[in-house]
Amino acid sequence: MFITTVVYFLVLLSPLPGWLKYVGPLTMGFVLFVLAFSLRFSLGNVVADPKTVLYNLAHKLRTARYRVEEANDELITQVDSMSAIRIRARASKSGTELTYRMDGTPAGWTVTLILVFSGYFAILIPPVVLFMLRRVRRCAREQVVPSLVATQVPGADSTSLRIHKALIDSLSEGYRLSSEAYEAEKSNYEDNVIFLVVLGFLVLVGSAIAFLTINTNARLEGIPVSFLLSVAIAIIFTFPSVWLLRRRVRPRLNELKGWATRLEGALVQEISSSKPKDEEPSVFELLADAWKDVPKWLEVRRKSGFYREPGTWLLILCLAGLSSTGLVFAFFMLIQSPLASVIVGAPSAGLLYVIHTLYSGSRRRLDEERDRVFSDWNRRIGVMNSQMEKHLQEL
Amino acid sequence: MSDPPAMDRPDLYVVARLLERLWREDAPMLKTRLQVAAKVNYDIFSRYLSWMVERGLVVIESSPDAHARVSLTRKGQESYLKLVQWINEVVRRKMPGFE
To answer: Whole-model pTM above 0.95?
Structure first.
């Protein structure tokens, strides 16, 4: 990886023709990107079955306040805002073989994919990807490997310790779900603000052109007035729309942040084993109340298509850019060369169909996921409630 | 003092609140402090306490200072563990039949 990076920068500094300098680093950056996200490193062997190893490891990482998601035979742990580590457990002759590879958070994927598609900025891929890999390897070395020692020790925990562990795991998972929902909602809100600001800029440009066109024959002193009017129109459009958006989204953001803060606070208290005040709500109640809101959190994540599927959405954006550029060219070439206009315009129009297919596919996947998760969640809550009530009756 | 009337259907939250509060204590807890944690009035609290004593979840100990103290029994601890484990299984999507 290091050698690739050195070669990469040597190519950049070399006296090669400009296009080769661009294509070379771009290709190498892409190769580095693929390698970094697909290479798997060993963590070692543990004398226990994979399920136990993953369960204990997840608990250790949660106690160290990492956000851990449990998949089938994997743990996905967020290392920082950009990178995550995927730890896989496979049964081996001596127990369980553990390996890991780097993964990105939605923010990490967005940044790296933007760099991949951004042309000359692709030269930033190696430092960004290497930085992420360094953080992931450090987490593996300093957090995961020491935690593995504890997972090798079998033996029954005391009832009290089992309660403590179960509370930490539940709080940590609640914190993960609520904070991910908060981040998704915030990201959605920021995207909408950016969209409104860009729209405001377009209103500014559009109204400036309109005023200047009207004032073509006017005196020169009319130009600043036209410009000021355009700015006023843009401000009148942008500020109230951003304010309205903020007013609509803020309560939801505050609610999500409130849940994340409460669950994180309870998690920190549980990890430190400090005693709560007598009047404080119990962790059990906090968790039981939080689970009623989980479908809402999952819905927030579902709505943030870009946050959940950054790859698909970046592809849609790139194709939309290509298609709109092609269509604009086709429009201007229509009078001079109708044949060239059709040659450029037809594939560009075809891209619109591809975009539509990609979008509806993404939407369908997310809708199906929501329905599946909602019905699964409601069933689980129902079963849990009836089991608890039955347990109380049978005591 | 007469025994409080029996309860038909205890509220899961109140029971869990009492069990959790007692589980966190290293030593038997003063009844008055436990009532604050239970967030119910004295009558209701007494009913819950009797219900829990009858089922062997807690014991009331009299102390030399004449203040009654409550502590969690092994059965009480296991009962709370069961409640917490159910929540944990639901959260971690490990409940049988859902994987």
So the answer is: no
